[in-house]
Amino acid sequence: MHGFANPRRFLGLAKRLTPILLVVGLLASTGAIVWGLVMVPPDRLMGETVRIIFIHVPTAWLGMAGWMTIAGSSLALLVWRHPLAALAARAAAIPGAVFTAICLATGSIWGRPTWGTWWVWDGRLTSMLILLFLYLAYIALSQAVDREGASSRLPAIFGLVGAVNIPIINRSVVWWNSLHQPPSITTGGSSIDGVFLWPMLIAMLGFTCLFAATVLMNMRALLAQAQAEARLRRRAMEAEPA
Q1: 199 vs 57: CA distance, rounded Å
Q2: pTM for this structure?
Q3: Which residues form the Cytochrome c assembly protein domain (predicted)?
Q4: If pLDDT is split at 50, 70 and 90, which confidence band does 188 have?
Q5: Among candidate residues 134, 127, 128, the one with its CA nearest the CA of residue 71
């Protein structure tokens, strides 16, 4: 893990991986969405509205995966003091928030014809909305810490505490009587027909690659900003009269 603590080594790896992830992500996600919208037949019960799963499910997955990236990076910062961990957590926050917002929006669009309402205070929906608020709070806290020069441990602790919401999201449809359907994919298999499952899995792969590429690009930008600020401070100190 500490092998890529050196910024130059990390930047070299990120520079090679980013275009690969972008190309694979764009091809897989675009292909899967076109497959799902054009080639997949309507569902017997949900009709044409089933097509939204090719966006809704991947964004829901990445909304949760984004926070787990924050939590894992926060743990690396607090326990191992990894020098790039704080950057990784900050880099994942905005993409994670965007995917969570898209998940909520597509879920509402799906819910209107399926449930007859745009929104219900269902366990899954409510916990997902809380995740979006956690993202916004984390982004604001990280920016405040960076602006004021405070300890990066504060957002790291918040990132770990916020991870409590992830198993709540995952198990909410099991713990509470819910309008939201129960889990369709479990360790025991899948209840989704293969005609819908395969394009959905490819969409998840594509969106995941896009998320990873975005995180790497954000980390590179944040690292470049930190290095530029360090150079400016060093020059300012050198310019001061003795």
Answers
A1: 11
A2: 0.91
A3: 24-180
A4: low
A5: 134
